[in-house]
Amino acid sequence: MLQTRRRYSINTVRDEVQALVGKGVLSKKTQLFSLSRHFDDEAWQEVEHLLTQNEYLLRDSVCDLIGQESWLND
What we know:
With 74 residues, this protein is mainly α. The chain contains 3 helices and no strands. 42% of the residues lie in helices and 0% in strands.
């Protein structure tokens, strides 16, 4: 069976990380490097490249990637 490799963009990485935070799998204070546990080796290489291309350091926290939560109704 031929498997197609998923292509990532910085937005899809953000969405996946936001979902992991929403499920409680990750904390917003977690360093970006720890994301490697949630991607296979090949995908992690691509994600790591995207992060560095977008000027994120692997020691930055997850909240730096996903940004602040915004509330429409306070």
